[in-house]
């Protein structure tokens, strides 16, 4: 059970990091303008703070992932990691200002992800002798 806790912590952290990094990339100048980007990063513009928080979220997520892999099978942990796709998809639709639209195809994809995770976590059938 401890492994699942750490894997889910990793999922939440990596999902938050994805959202923060997307916000940072919208706020920061394009990479094609390297001087503007460096100036924004070193003067702690709005996007640079979100960039640092997003990268910190990734680092914290890696720590949780490390703890999860010590306590559970890789196949199960990796299946749980796919839940971050669902969290980011929902957050991008629900959060104001993101302009993401709901689609039935996206919902079908979320359903397939959930079904796949459930199949992996279903208890194995016992052999009858």
From TrEMBL:
UniProt xrefs under SUPFAM superfamilies: Multidrug resistance efflux transporter EmrE
Q: Which domain of life is it from?
A: Bacteria
Q: How does it sit in the membrane?
A: Multi-pass membrane protein
Arranged from A to Z, the UniProt key words for this protein are: Cell inner membrane, Cell membrane, Lipid A biosynthesis, Lipid biosynthesis, Lipid metabolism, Lipopolysaccharide biosynthesis, Membrane, Transmembrane, Transmembrane helix, Transport
- Location(s), subcellular: Cell inner membrane; Cell membrane
| Transmembrane segments annotated in the record for this chain | 40-66, 78-98, 104-125
Give the coiled coil ranges: none
Q: What PANTHER family has UniProt attached to this entry?
A: 4-AMINO-4-DEOXY-L-ARABINOSE-PHOSPHOUNDECAPRENOL FLIPPASE SUBUNIT ARNF-RELATED, SMR FAMILY PROTON-DEPENDENT DRUG EFFLUX TRANSPORTER SUGE
Q: Which family does it belong to?
A: Belongs to the ArnF family.
Q: What does this protein do?
A: Translocates 4-amino-4-deoxy-L-arabinose-phosphoundecaprenol (alpha-L-Ara4N-phosphoundecaprenol) from the cytoplasmic to the periplasmic side of the inner membrane.
Give the quaternary structure: Heterodimer of ArnE and ArnF.
- The name on file for this protein is Probable 4-amino-4-deoxy-L-arabinose-phosphoundecaprenol flippase subunit ArnF
Instruction: List the source organism.
Output: Lelliottia aquatilis
Organism placement in taxonomy:
Bacteria, Pseudomonadati, Pseudomonadota, Gammaproteobacteria, Enterobacterales
The gene from which this protein is expressed is: arnF
